[in-house]
Amino acid sequence: MRSLWNRFRRKRRRRLPRFVRWTLYLILGFYAFCSIALIGLRWFVPVATGVQIQRRVESFFEEGAYQLVQVFIPLEQIPLDLQRAVIAAEDGRFYEHSGIDWLELEKVFEEAETRGRLRGGSTISQQLVKNLFLTTHRWPVRKVLEVSLVPIEEFVLSKDRILELYLNYIEWGPGIWGVEAASRYHYGIAASQLNRGQSARLAACIPDPRRRRPSQMDTYSEIILERMRSRGW
Questions:
Q1: What's the rounded Cα separation, in Å, for the pair 94 and 229?
Q2: What are the domain boundaries of the chain?
Q3: pLDDT in tens, 80-98
Q4: What is the predicted pLDDT for the residue at 7?
Q5: Which CATH fold topology does 47-230 show?
Q6: Which one of 8, 39, 174, 177 has the lowest number of neighbouring Cβ atoms within 10 Å?
Q7: Bridge pairing between strands 171-173 and 69-70
Q8: Average pLDDT value for residue range 129-156
Q9: How much is the pLDDT for 210?
């Protein structure tokens, strides 16, 4: 019986080139690592994220010193206005979809047909996966990995936990990670002291955090505030 099994394995190996086998092993290993990490994130916080590592590597080729600033705070210490402003800005149906907002994607493609350009349609869940395990580089494989990991993330983590990790680990300026560091960097106050207007301005910086500043976000912050008002927030 063992000899038959060994012959079967040898035949299977001959059918698959070594490069293909190792590629499959790497992919399976990546998904296993991410799945285990997501389970751990139910109770623990990450030591570092993929985008943080990316920025550290990029800093070796840039002028000036790079210093990472981050302070993790629980969701209950983050003002509700800020939570709602971020949802209104980035993912209006966050608590309604299961990780991928198919309705929003349909709108994105419809707009692309009329305007001739494709805007972003990633949900908060997708953005968290990207920040944790991938990079900001726009390559097709990254998007495939991102979308395929979201169902695992949504199964393992609650919506509140996803939002908590997102608000604590997204980039909000050069070396500035998370809402507490962002609040202190941009306003000189703790995140718990942010008012409604300041929250909207911080949320408006998320699409381009290393270039945008809250003081420059008059127009977009008003759009975010109007979205909040339309939802009764």
A1: 17
A2: 1-40, 47-230
A3: 999 999 999 999 999 999 9
A4: 59
A5: Penicillin binding protein transpeptidase fold (1.10.3810)
A6: 8
A7: unpaired
A8: 94
A9: 93
In whole angstroms, how far apart are CA 124 and each of 67, 128, 189? 26, 6, 25
Q: Which of 184, 163, 200, 206 is nearest to 51 (CA)?
A: 206
Strand partners, 197: none
CB-count burial class (<10 Å; 0-12, 13-18, 19+) for 197? middle
Q: Are 166 and 124 in contact (CB under 8 A)?
A: yes
The whole-model pTM stands at 0.88
* Amino acid letter, residue 115: R
Q: Does residue 117 have a pLDDT over 70?
A: no
